[in-house]
Design brief:
Blueprint (H helix, E strand, L loop, with lengths): L10 H9 L9 E3 L9 H12 L6 E5 L14 E5 L6 H7 L6 E4 L5 H4 L2 H22 L3 E5 L11 H14 L5 E5 L3 E3 L7 H16 L2 H4 L2 E3 H16 L10 E4 L1 H8 L3
Parallel strand pairs: 1-2, 1-4, 2-3, 4-5, 5-6, 6-9, 7-8
GO cellular component, one term: mitochondrial outer membrane
Subcellular location: Mitochondrion outer membrane
Protein name: NAD(P)-binding domain-containing protein
């Protein structure tokens, strides 16, 4: 694993190192889902899925903290950029050579971590759109966004409205193909405390043990969402998308289950 970070003092050597392990055909760059405290539940599974996929020669991550999967990752496949200064992230993305074919964003934060919704909006909406624009300008072909099942720019509720506005601003950038996943409740173990979500995840877990159909419609496991994001991104890159989804492919809960299931 290569780890250029805030403390890197030899950018020229860093860029030479990047050139040694690039495959332009399938080289996604993943923006891991981060909070101020930890890398996120879906983002970590996305990274694992990418590293395990033999079709992918190279992965770059951009995050606040080093991903947990990085320690065991092949040195020639994974490069991590770690910085608390998110104003540096877009420039880091722009510097990748050659340009990643696929960009996956599972970035988000919480109202509590951001210190209120206004700050959450600035961070989550602002950074997602800034990074998407940097990817578009660099020539990335496929953009994959982990959004939310209730995303709606016209919603009277702040959170789904923010998610909907992120979607609309990303779509307006005009990627060759845009893939948006709209999961319901995300099942799994979060590192940060979200009591209300924890209660719902517990219910989802019980329902899933009784029958998967009792859960799949409104909750999806984080690893399933991650595999769906990776698989859909690769399919979009190859042009293998459902009819009518050539430019914009939106995956709801049932689609996420379909494309995120284990082979």
């Amino acid at each position: 694993m290569r780890t250029p970070s805030e403390s890197s003092r030899h950018p020229t050597s860093f860029h030479r190192a990047l050139g040694n392990v690039i495959s332009a055909s399938h080289s996604p760059c993943v923006l891991t889902h981060c909070t101020y405290r930890a890398t996120g539940m879906v983002g970590s599974h996305i990274l694992t899925s990418l590293l395990e996929n033999p079709a992918i020669a190279r992965v770059d991550t951009i995050s606040r903290r080093t991903p947990s999967a990085a320690a065991a990752a092949p040195q020639t496949k994974l490069t991590t950029f770690v910085s608390d200064d998110t104003s540096r992230w877009a420039a880091q993305l722009s510097s990748l050579t050659p340009t990643p074919s696929i960009f996956i964003s599972a970035f988000g934060t919480t109202r509590a971590a951001a210190g209120g919704f206004e700050n959450q909006y600035k961070v989550e909406h602002g950074l997602n759109v800034e990074m998407a624009r940097a990817a578009r300008d660099a020539g990335t072909k496929v953009y994959v966004l982990i959004s939310s099942g209730g995303a709606n720019k016209a919603s009277s509720f702040a959170y789904p409205r923010m998610k909907g506005e992120i979607e609309e601003d990303v779509k307006a950038l005009g990627f060759e193909r845009t893939v948006i996943l709209r999961p319901g409740l995300i099942s799994g173990q979060r590192q940060e405390s979200r009591p209300a979500e924890a209660a719902l995840r517990f219910i989802a877990g019980i329902a899933g043990k009784v029958h998967s159909g009792l859960k799949d419609g409104w909750a999806q496991d984080a690893d399933v969402i991650a595999r769906a994001a990776v698989n859909a991104g690769l399919k979009a890159l190859d042009g293998d998308v459902p009819p009518g989804s050539e430019k914009l492919w939106i995956l709801g809960g049932s689609d996420i289950i379909k494309y995120g299931g284990k082979k």
